[in-house]
Structure formats: C-alpha cells, structure tokens
C-alpha cells in the first residue's frame, strides 16, 4: 500500500466587494455585511478611517495590505482561498488597478498546471450603489479641491462679483440649448450652469458662513412649503390652481415687500416688463391706466407696454415669442 496523500481541503471563495464611494460609511446591503462578518479575512488598501469605525462596530477587522505589491495581493487571495478560507477584498476608490489582471493570471495558472488544486470561486458582490443625485457630491468635492490651497490659482481668486458675467452667460446658453431641441446640448449647458451655483456656494462658504448644504436645504424647504397640495393637506386640481396657490403663499411670505421689490433690475427690459405687468395684474390694477401713465406721452413706449399686456392676456411669453421670431429672421444676402 502506497503512502497516503492528504485530501486537499475544499476550495474557499474570494469575494470582490464593490461599493460606491458616494455612500456614507456603514451603508451596505445585508448580503455585503453578512459576507464581511463571515469571512476568514478581509483585505483592503488604505481603508477610510470612517469605514474602519463602521467595521469595528460590526466586529470586522480589515487587514491593510497597502504595502504589498498587487501581484502578491492576488496570490494571497488565491492561495488562502485554495486552503479553504473565505476571503473578502474590500475594493478601493481607485478601482484597484491591476488586481483583476493579477487575479486572472493566478487563477489561470492553477487551472492549467497538472496536479494543481482547482482554482477557487471568485465572486463579485455589489454592496452599495449610487443614489440619484450622488454625482453632485463629486462636483462639490472637485470645487473644494479647486478652491483649496494647492488648487487652481484662477478659481481660487474668483469672487461673487467676478463670477456674475459667467452666471448670466450660462443662463442664456441654457435657454439657447433648450430652444435648439438638442438633449446633449441641454445636458452640457445645464452642467455649466450648475457649476456656477456650486461655485458661488463655495465662495459663500468661505465668506458668508453658508455653503451648498444650506442653499439646498433652503430650496427644499421652500418647495415643500409652496406645495401644500403635495406635502400637506392643501388641494389643487389643475396647474392653474397650483399657480394661484404658489403666488398666494409667496405673497404671504413676502408680506413686507413694497411695489416692484424683488424684480431684478438686471433683467432684460422685456422680461422685466412682463414681471412688473404681472405684479400689477395680480394686485388688481387697471393695466390700461398704468400703461398710459408709464408711457408719459411716448407712443412707442405705450405700444411696447401694450404688447406686454397682450402677451399676458394671451398666455404667451413675450420674451420667448420675440426670441423665436428673431431666430426666423432671414439674414441679408452677402
């Protein structure tokens, strides 16, 4: 009878755990936490301290293998799994460059070398996903880098005032993109406009004590407050009902506002006229009388204001209507 050979242990498993870097520490799926807790070893590269706290609370102690070359990390995963261990690789934010290739090489070698123990099972498990809007966190982080020491000199010296021309320009470019009907163009220009909002919020964080969170919280509170038919016990059966309710709530909030206060003087004259005529109309003013008084005998001014009144009565946007007509003008022949 020949010498007995020990029976090789059943191969374990390597789990590559993928998570979203935009998910708060500790937020993982049940299956991900279950795998982490039951693993014989959890390997990671430079794990985030906040995640280490979450791991510790769950009784998980990752081993930091930052100093180990990629090929050796892959070899460790395969060899320990072949010895029957269950291992979890906690993926890093940079995607662990080179690890999958190194793993494939080790697994292939075991698959083709005669007499080698079969390679272990390798599973990719997604433990968390991006939630809608999470990419906004990336934008905030990039802006923070640009404005921080060692960032971009140009971005670092901008102020609210210096940024105003870009804000105005990007708003007009969004309008142009929407009217072009090109979704890709709209997406790009909305991104440029969003940058301006985040940029101004970052400047305010340094100078005025509020940042993007306070800006977002303010508009969230306003939207909830102005939509009682959605978030409260209000009622609205049509878009017109919503508009009436919105204006009433806005008027109550701005009870101390006088005259045309709140209508920006920097609006284009036609758009500003619409706002002012709308304010007069909601206040019950006689628009014909208001137009004649404002024109002060200037027939052209009276005609222009009457056209704004006409646009309101007909439910049209005078600014958009004129802009569309300008787009249809035929240029002179060269």
From TrEMBL:
The lineage of its organism: Bacteria, Bacillati, Actinomycetota, Actinomycetes, Kineosporiales. Signal peptide: none annotated. This is Nucleoside triphosphate pyrophosphohydrolase. It comes from the Bacteria. Pfam families: MazG. InterPro entries: MazG-like_dom, NTP-PPase_MazG-like_N, NTP_PyrPHydrolase_MazG. Residues 158-231 form the NTP pyrophosphohydrolase MazG-like domain. It comes from Kineosporia mesophila.
């Amino acid at each position: 009878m020949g010498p007995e050979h020990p029976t090789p242990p059943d191969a374990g498993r390597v789990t590559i755990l993928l998570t979203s870097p935009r998910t708060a520490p500790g937020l993982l799926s049940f299956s991900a936490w279950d795998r982490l807790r039951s693993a014989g070893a959890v390997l990671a590269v430079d794990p985030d301290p906040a995640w280490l706290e979450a791991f510790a609370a769950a009784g998980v102690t990752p081993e930091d293998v930052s100093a180990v070359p990629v090929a050796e990390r892959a070899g460790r995963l395969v060899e320990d799994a072949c010895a029957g261990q269950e291992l979890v690789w906690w993926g890093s934010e940079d995607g662990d460059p080179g690890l999958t290739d190194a793993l494939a090489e080790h697994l292939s070698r075991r698959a083709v070398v005669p007499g080698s123990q079969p390679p272990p099972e390798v599973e990719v498990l997604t433990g968390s996903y991006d939630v809608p809007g999470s990419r906004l966190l990336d934008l905030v982080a990039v802006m923070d880098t640009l404005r921080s020491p060692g960032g971009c000199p140009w971005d670092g010296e901008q102020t609210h005032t210096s940024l105003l021309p870009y804000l105005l320009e990007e708003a007009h470019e969004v309008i142009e993109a929407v009217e072009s009907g090109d979704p890709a163009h709209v997406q790009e220009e909305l991104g440029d406009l969003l940058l301006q909002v985040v940029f101004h919020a970052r400047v305010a964080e340094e100078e005025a004590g509020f940042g993007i969170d306070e800006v977002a919280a303010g508009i969230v509170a306003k939207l909830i407050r102005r939509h009682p038919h959605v978030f409260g016990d209000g009622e609205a059966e049509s878009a017109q009902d919503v508009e009436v309710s919105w204006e009433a709530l806005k008027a109550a909030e701005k009870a101390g506002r006088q005259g045309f206060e709140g209508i920006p003087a920097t609006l284009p004259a036609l758009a500003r006229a619409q706002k002012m005529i709308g304010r007069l109309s909601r206040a019950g003013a006689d628009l014909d009388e208001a137009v004649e008084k404002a024109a002060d005998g200037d027939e052209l001014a009276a005609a222009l204001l009457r056209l704004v009144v006409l646009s309101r009565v007909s439910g049209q946007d005078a600014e958009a209507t004129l802009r569309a007509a300008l787009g249809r003008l035929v240029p002179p022949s060269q």
